[in-house]
Amino acid sequence: MVDHADSVPGSGYEERPSGTVAGAVLWRAGGAGSGIVLPDGCMDLLWVDGRLLVAGPDTAPHPAGEVPGSGFAGIRLAPGTAPALLGVPARLLRDRRVELSDLWPAAEVRRLTARVASYGDPRAGLEELARLRTADGGLPDPLVREVAARLRAGQGVAAVAGAVGLGERQLHRRSLDAFGYGPRTLGRILRLQRALALTRRGLPQAAVAAAAGYADQAHYTREVRALAGTTPGAYAAAGAKREIPEPSGSRTTA
User: Fold this and answer.
1) Residue 72: what are its φ and ψ, rounded to 5°?
2) How many whole angstroms separate alpha carbon 150 and alpha carbon 159?
3) Worst-scoring range by mean pLDDT, 52-66, 169-183, 237-251?
4) Contact (CB, 8 A) for 67 and 26
5) What's residue 26's pLDDT?
6) pTM of the full structure
7) Sign of the four-CA dihedral 15, 81, 250, 75
8) CB of 242 within 8 A of CB of 233?
């Protein structure tokens, strides 16, 4: 997730926090581009050339152009919030981009597509759709929100399970439905995002590794290779390009 709002000069991309859907970000981009979408624990509801799609939670880098199109808009939903809104377990959407009509009745999707299209900015239509679904019983379980917050803070799986009153196996099952993968994987992804944010601020790799909670710099390097398909040095060297998110709404690298 990008750690600044508004726009990235020259990128054709802009975003802003949602005013009505907690933790969500509204974004738009001119085209798919040629970057790589990195895992961030989020799911997106997409508007692509007049179609509604869903981008599931990623476990590995994805090519930005895997969903072809010339105009993209989306609402990026915070980890654990999309399944309640969509009525679909996140594990079924892991590493996938699917048409909303594959998840909901076609007639309902046609009605919603026309409604989103009626807005001058499709982001506003997507935000309203998400708001209405949330108000109609699509609120995430408070336990899910707590799990995500504790993992984001760097707590280990055993500590999180104990804090929310679940066994580790129960936590794993609940996490698969809420996040698309187990708590250990979500924790790794959220830690990666913390580390990349520090890298974008210009911190040396050793300092990033320590601040983000890695055992050492080698551990940090292995995790970046595994989850982002690159190296910390290559990510840092990408410069301004790494600040250009691609049309799933997730962080990218050049």
Assistant:
1) -125, 145
2) 9
3) 237-251
4) no
5) 97
6) 0.86
7) negative
8) no
